[in-house]
Structures are given as structure tokens and as C-alpha cells.
């Protein structure tokens, strides 16, 4: 998928409007029908060349996802992510919303994304993480205490990360977040910071 193509927000918006219209018309009544509708819509868009040639790779990627993964492809979620990430609306949201949006993107990229209890985070029952599985693992306590009521970040969020850091950084940056390596003996420990966040 060409994630740098700004026109992809128009494609995503058209797909979401078509889906919403079909729901209002009573054509769609389940998530499985959402995926089937969008797969067919994308196939028609590709065949009829409804969008500029620059979007061909995006359409092909979404179509492959829908056909290969079925309901797990979450095509409505992918289109919503692309629309918000590319339309500029995402930057107007608070830190927590943008972080949750980034996590959704991470899951769409087939990464594991888990929030761990204190016992799973450290101590004898600490979760064993496999370097062969791309994933991001956060502390529940840090998530609970990390944001004010308005969704603004209050503390640097610790996260253990396995997988390709460059790919994760691209997803985080699109949502207005960044990652920094933590000092110390834990090679998987990093901190997640919202753009503009400074510890007081």
C-alpha cells in the first residue's frame, strides 16, 4: 500500500460513504456483509478505473486484504484509518484518541497489541515476549494514569516492543506520536510520547 499518497483519503471517504448508504438502504446488516460489500465495491472501482492511477496500489492492497482475510480484514476500519490519517482530521484530536488510533493501525498491520496487568508487566509472572512476533505491549497502570480527563498525555508511557521499529515508527508518526528507547538493561523497553509532550 502506498501510505504516502495523500489522495487515498478521497478513496477511503468514497468507500465509507458507499458503505453507509448501503447500510441505510438495508442492504447490509452484519460485519460480514460490510466486508463483502466493500470487497465488491473495490473490485468494481478497480475494474471501472473510478480513481486516479496513483491509487491503483492502494485499491489492490485493500482488495487483497478483503479477499484473503475475510471478516478479519476489517475493511471499514482500514478505510476509516486511511481517511482520518490522510485528511488532517486526526491532528485535531487529543493525545489519547490519536494513540488509540495508532494502536488500531498497528493491529491492522498484523502486530500484537496488548495492555498488561502489573503482574504481567513485571515480576515472576511477567509476560514472556517472543522476538519473532511483532508486538507492542503496554502497562495497564501507566495507561490508566497516563492521561488527564481531556485525553492529554501526563507521563511518558512505557512500552515493550518486538518487531521492526522503523515500521512502528511510521505508524506512530502518522498519529502524532513517537517512540524513544529507554535507558537500562531491558532491550525491549521504550517510551511512547505524544508530539509536543514534555515531562514536567
UniProtKB/TrEMBL annotation:
Taxon lineage: Bacteria, Pseudomonadati, Pseudomonadota, Gammaproteobacteria, Enterobacterales
Protein name: DUF2913 family protein
Taxonomic source organism: Candidatus Pantoea formicae
Organism domain of life: Bacteria
InterPro entries tied to this protein: DUF2913
Amino acid at each position: 500500500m502506498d501510505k504516502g499518497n495523500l489522495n487515498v483519503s478521497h478513496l477511503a471517504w468514497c468507500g465509507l460513504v458507499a458503505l453507509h448508504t448501503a447500510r441505510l438502504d438495508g442492504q447490509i446488516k452484519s460485519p460480514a456483509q460490510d466486508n463483502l460489500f466493500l470487497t465488491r465495491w473495490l473490485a468494481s472501482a478497480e475494474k471501472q478505473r473510478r480513481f486516479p492511477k496513483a491509487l491503483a496500489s492502494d485499491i489492490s492492497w485493500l482488495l487483497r486484504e478483503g479477499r484473503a482475510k475475510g471478516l478479519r480484514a476489517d475493511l471499514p476500519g482500514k478505510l476509516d484509518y486511511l481517511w482520518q490519517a490522510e485528511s488532517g482530521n486526526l491532528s485535531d484530536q487529543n493525545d489519547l484518541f490519536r494513540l488509540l488510533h495508532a494502536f488500531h493501525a498497528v493491529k491492522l498491520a498484523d502486530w500484537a497489541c496488548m495492555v498488561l496487568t502489573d503482574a504481567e508487566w513485571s515480576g515472576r509472572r511477567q509476560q514472556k515476549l517472543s522476538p519473532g512476533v511483532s508486538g507492542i505491549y503496554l502497562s495497564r497502570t501507566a495507561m490508566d494514569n497516563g492521561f488527564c480527563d481531556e485525553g492529554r498525555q501526563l507521563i511518558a508511557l512505557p512500552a515493550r516492543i518486538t518487531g521492526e521499529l522503523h515500521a512502528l515508527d511510521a505508524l506512530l508518526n502518522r498519529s502524532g506520536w513517537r517512540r524513544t528507547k529507554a535507558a537500562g538493561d531491558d532491550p525491549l523497553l521504550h517510551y511512547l510520547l505524544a508530539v509536543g509532550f514534555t515531562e514536567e
